[in-house]
Design goal:
The complex is a heterodimer.
Chain A: E1 28-41, E2 44-57, E3 61-66, H1 72-79, E4 87-92, E5 95-96, H2 102-111, E6 113-117, H3 128-137, H4 143-156, H5 172-184, E7 190-194, H6 202-219, E8 222-226, H7 230-233, E9 238-243, E10 246-252, H8 254-257
Parallel strand pairs in A: 3-8, 3-9, 6-7, 7-8
Antiparallel strand pairs in A: 1-2, 1-4, 4-5, 9-10
Helix pairs in contact in A: 3-4, 3-5, 4-5, 5-6
Chain B: H1 2-15, H2 17-55, E1 59-64, E2 68-69, E3 72-73, H3 84-93, E4 97-112, E5 115-124, H4 127-132, E6 136-139, H5 144-148, E7 153-156, H6 158-165, E8 174-177, E9 180-188, E10 203-207, H7 208-216, E11 223-228, H8 234-248, E12 259-263, H9 264-307, H10 309-317, H11 322-359, H12 367-393, H13 397-402
The chains are: A alpha/beta, B alpha+beta.
Bound molecules: adenosine-5'-triphosphate (ATP) and magnesium ion.
The site of adenosine-5'-triphosphate has 12 residues of chain A, from strand 1, strand 2 and helix 1.
C-alpha cells in the first residue's frame, strides 16, 4: 500500500512551500544548557545526564541515538516537561520552563508538545477519533470543533476510514498513526517520539517514518525522535548521539539544510 | 469540564457494569435500609400519636396512690382512696375541668342466650361519653337517672355485640353478668385497638353505681377520668385537682398525695419521644451499612486507579492537570454513589410498602429523609472517592506511562 501521509488535507500554511525554510529564521524551539539528571535509588546515585548542551531550531527533524541506558529517554522526558532536571537550564520557545508549576507544565504538554510512544499508549476501548480528541478535552475546545479537528488530523495520517475502530481493531502501524494524529491535534511546536517504530516491522516502520518526514517537510513541524536503528535515523536531517549521559556527536545533513 | 468528567465517569462505569453494580450494592442496601428503618420508626410514631389523639390530649386520669407494704410498694392504684364524690367535686369546683367520670373495670363473663363471652365490664358515669368522645351507634348512653337508680342497663361494644348476637340486633336484649340480667340500651361505635393492641370494642359499659354495688361490691372507684377545657390547660387542671383532693382527703402539708394524676399529653409526648429514639436508633444502625457501602466504593476506586494507571499517565501526557484527574475520579465515585443512592431510595420505599402490606406495620416514608439519603450518598462518594482520586492525581506521569 503506497502511502502519502499528507494526501488530501494540508495545514493552511503548507502550500507556501517547504516550511523547513522557516528554520533558517533561527527561531529556537529548544535551548538546553548544562543539563544534569541524577536518579537516587537509596544510597546509589545514577547520573543519567551529565551536562547536555543542545539547541534545536523550528522545523528541524532530529534523530537521537545511543546505546541502551545512555540517557535518551531521560532527555526526552525532560524536554517533554514530564520530568524535572537535577540542574541546568531548559528554554522551550524562549520560556524558562524549570520555574513553572506542574499545572503550567500540563498546559505546555497540552499546547506545545505532542508525544508519540513506542507502545502507542492509546486509551483502550476508545475509538480512534476519541483517542485523537483526548488532548482537546483538556483545553476547553467544544465538541463540534474537537471532532472537526480530529477528523482533519486523522485524514492527514491517512486514517479517515478507521475513525470508529478501537485500538485492538487496528494494526500496530495504524495504532501508531492514531498516536501521531493525537500528538498533532493541538498544533504543537514540537513532537517527541521515543522509539516510535520500536514495536513495528521494517515495512511499517518505513511508512511511519515517511509520515514523520512528510509532517516535517510539508507542515514544518519540529520533530525529535529516539531510535536505535541507523536506517530509521536516516529519515532525519540531524543526528545526535548519546553516550553515558553526554552528547558525543551532533551532525546535520548539510545538503538538506542548505537546500 | 464537569460535563466531560461526568461522561468519562459514566463510560468507565459502563465498561464494568457488573462490578459497578456490585459496588453500588453497599450504597443501595445502606440507603434502602435507612429509608425503610426510618419509615418504620416514623410509622410507629405516627400511630402512637394518632392513638393518643384519639384518647384526647386534654385528658387527665386520677389514680389512687401507692401503698407501701413492708417496704414493697404496690403499683399505682394500690390504694382505695378515690370515691365518686371526688369526681363530682372535681367537676363542679374546678373551672378548667369540663367533665369527670369515675371508672371501675373488671373482667366478667357476659352471657346472652346460649352464647357467652369474657369481656371487660366498665362502670362509668354519663360524662364518660363526652370525655372519651365515644359515639353510640344505636340506642343511648348511660343517663344520670341510670346512675342514681343503680339501673341494670348496659351498652355493649362492637366486639361483644358480634360475639354474643352475631348479626342480630342486640338492642333491648338481656345479657347476664354475674347472674344479674342487664337490659341492653345501646351499642357503642367502633374504637379500634389501643397502642398496646387491646381491643377497645371488647367492652360492656354499665352505670358505675351498678358496677360498685351489684357487680364488685365496693364503695371506692378505681380511677377518675377528667377532661380539661383544652390541651394547654391540663397542667393547670392537674394543679387544682391536686389541691382539691389533698383538701378533701385531709392530707397534712408535707405528706404524700394518696392519689396520682396522669396527664395524657405528657404520656403522648413520652411515647412519641420513645418512638423518635427508636427511629434514630434504627436509622443509625442502617447508616453503618451506608458506611460499609462507602468503604466498598473506596476499595473499588483504588482498584480502578491501579488498573487505569496507564490511562492516567496518557491523560497527563496530553495535558490533564492533577485537578482534572482528581475531578474525573471523584465524579466517578459520586456518580456511582448517587446511582446507588437513587436505587436505594427505590428499594427503601419498595420494602417499606412491603413491610406495610405483609407485616401490617404502619410505615411513613419521609421525603426529607429521602433527600438527605441522596445527599449523604453523594457525600459518601466524595468522601470515599477523595483518597483514591488524590492517589490518581498525584501519580508521576512517567511512572504511570511505564506502568504495566
Ligand atoms: N526512574 C529511574 N530511576 C533510576 N534510574 C533510572 C530511572 N530511569 C532511568 N534510569 C537510569 O538512567 C539511565 C538512563 O536511562 P534511559 O532510560 O534514559 O536510557 P535510554 O537511553 O532511554 O535507554 P534505552 O535505549 O534502553 O531506552 C539508565 O542507567 C537507567 O538505569
Ligand atoms: Mg529509552
Amino acid at each position: 500500500m503506497a502511502f502519502d501521509g499528507t494526501a488530501g488535507l494540508h495545514f493552511s500554511d503548507s502550500s507556501s512551500g517547504p516550511s523547513r525554510l522557516r528554520s533558517d529564521s533561527g527561531t529556537e524551539v529548544i535551548r538546553i544548557h548544562d543539563l544534569h539528571k541524577v536518579y537516587k535509588m537509596g544510597d546509589i546515585e545514577v547520573e543519567a545526564l551529565c551536562g547536555i548542551n543542545v539547541t534545536i531550531q523550528r522545523g528541524e527533524f532530529v534523530a537521537v541515538m545511543g546505546a541502551s541506558g545512555s540517557g535518551k529517554s531521560t532527555f526526552m522526558n525532560i524536554v517533554g516537561c514530564l520530568d524535572r532536571p537535577t540542574s541546568g537550564a531548559y528554554f522551550l520557545e524562549g520560556q524558562d520552563v524549570s520555574a513553572l508549576s506542574s499545572d503550567e507544565w500540563a498546559h505546555i504538554r497540552n499546547r506545545k508538545i505532542g508525544f508519540v510512544f513506542q507502545g502507542f499508549n492509546l486509551l483502550s476501548r476508545t475509538s480512534a477519533v476519541e483517542n485523537v480528541e483526548l488532548p482537546m478535552m483538556y483545553n476547553g475546545l467544544h465538541g463540534k470543533e474537537r471532532r472537526e479537528r480530529a477528523l482533519e488530523v486523522l485524514t492527514l495520517v491517512g486514517l479517515e476510514d478507521r475513525l470508529h475502530h478501537m485500538p485492538n481493531q487496528l494494526s500496530g502501524g495504524q495504532q501508531q498513526r492514531v498516536a501521531i494524529a493525537r500528538s498533532l491535534v493541538n498544533r504543537p511546536a514540537l513532537i517527541l517520539a521515543d522509539e516510535p517504530t520500536g514495536n513495528l516491522d521494517t515495512k511499517t516502520s518505513a511508512e511511519i517514518m515517511e509520515l514523520f518526514q512528510n509532517l516535517n517537510a510539508k507542515e514544518g513541524i519540529t520533530i525529535v525522535l529516539v531510535t536505535h536503528e541507523t536506517d530509521i535515523a536516516k529519515y532525519a536531517q540531524r543526528q545526535i548521539l548519546f553516550r553515558d549521559g553526554l552528547i558525543i556527536s551532533d551532525s546535520k545533513k548539510e545538503e538538506k539544510l542548505q537546500g | 469540564m464537569w460535563i466531560m468528567a461526568f461522561r468519562i465517569a459514566v463510560r468507565a462505569l459502563g465498561r464494568n457494569k457488573l462490578r459497578s453494580f456490585l459496588t453500588m450494592m453497599g450504597i443501595i442496601i445502606g440507603v434502602g435500609a435507612v429509608i425503610a428503618m426510618v419509615a418504620i420508626g416514623e410509622g410507629a410514631k405516627a400511630l402512637v400519636r394518632q392513638q393518643i389523639a384519639s384518647l384526647g390530649t386534654n385528658l387527665l386520669v386520677i389514680l389512687p396512690g401507692t401503698v407501701t407494704v413492708g417496704g414493697a410498694r404496690t403499683g399505682a392504684g394500690g390504694r382505695q382512696s378515690l370515691v365518686d364524690s371526688d369526681a363530682k367535686a372535681v367537676m363542679s369546683e374546678i373551672p378548667v375541668v369540663t367533665a369527670a367520670s369515675p371508672v371501675l373495670r373488671q373482667v366478667q363473663q357476659a352471657i346472652a342466650g346460649d352464647q357467652n363471652w369474657a369481656t371487660s365490664v366498665q362502670g362509668v358515669a354519663p360524662e364518660f361519653q363526652q370525655i372519651r368522645n365515644w359515639q353510640v351507634q344505636e340506642g343511648r348512653f348511660i343517663s344520670q337517672a341510670d346512675v342514681d337508680s343503680t339501673a341494670k342497663v348496659a351498652l355493649i361494644g362492637q366486639t361483644v355485640a358480634y360475639n354474643l348476637f352475631g348479626d342480630d340486633d342486640p338492642l333491648d336484649n338481656i345479657i347476664r353478668i354475674k347472674k344479674i340480667p342487664f337490659r341492653i340500651i345501646g351499642v357503642l361505635g367502633a374504637k379500634g385497638q389501643t397502642g398496646h393492641g387491646t381491643d377497645q370494642d371488647d367492652v360492656v359499659m354499665v352505670p358505675y353505681t351498678t358496677m360498685q354495688k351489684r357487680i364488685m361490691g365496693v364503695t371506692y372507684v378505681q380511677q377518675i377520668i377528667v377532661s380539661a377545657v383544652s390541651a394547654d390547660k391540663t397542667q393547670e387542671a392537674k394543679d387544682q385537682i391536686t389541691l382539691l383532693l389533698r383538701q378533701r382527703h385531709k392530707i397534712r402539708p408535707g405528706a404524700d398525695d394518696d392519689f396520682n394524676i396522669r396527664n395524657l399529653s405528657d404520656i403522648a409526648e413520652a411515647a412519641s419521644n420513645s418512638a423518635t429514639v427508636m427511629a434514630v436508633l434504627l436509622g443509625s444502625i442502617a447508616s453503618v451499612s451506608l458506611l460499609v457501602g462507602g468503604i466498598g466504593i473506596m476499595n473499588i476506586m483504588l482498584v480502578s486507579v491501579t488498573e487505569r494507571t496507564r490511562e492516567i499517565g496518557i491523560r497527563m501526557a496530553v495535558g490533564a492537570r492533577s485537578r482534572d484527574i482528581m475531578l474525573q475520579f471523584i465524579v466517578e465515585a459520586v456518580v456511582m454513589a448517587a446511582i446507588g443512592g437513587a436505587l436505594g431510595i427505590l428499594v427503601g420505599i419498595g420494602s417499606s410498602n412491603m413491610i406495610q402490606r405483609i407485616m401490617e406495620w404502619p410505615v411513613l416514608v419521609r421525603p426529607d429523609i429521602v433527600i438527605i439519603a441522596l445527599l449523604v450518598s453523594g457525600g459518601v462518594g466524595i468522601f470515599f472517592g477523595f483518597y483514591p482520586a488524590q492517589k490518581a492525581a498525584h501519580l508521576d506521569p512517567i511512572d504511570a506511562l511505564r506502568y504495566e
